[in-house]
Amino acid sequence: MTGRDQLIEQSILEYESRLKHVDELLDRAHHHQPPAEVAKELEQARHERQKMAAHLQEMRRKPPEHWREEEIEMAGPMGIWDAVAQQLEKLVEKLER
Fold it and tell me: Is the pTM of this model over 0.85?
């Protein structure tokens, strides 16, 4: 495996880790009866999660030779994933109080 292939694999693993964290937060939220405004935000977070999962699937299927250098170095739109996770963390904290 080349260094480039390792970087690609590392990027995919980072996305998988973040998706798992989002899934864990959604699972925790699912165990509560959220108020209407929180339920709406949770539904929006679930929708974002589906988009993230679809993006991850695309990454997994993409042959290494089709990856652009900036995709490897930046690991894609990781900031969006982090923002979704932070929003979910706040919602779960509200529900667990």
Answer: no
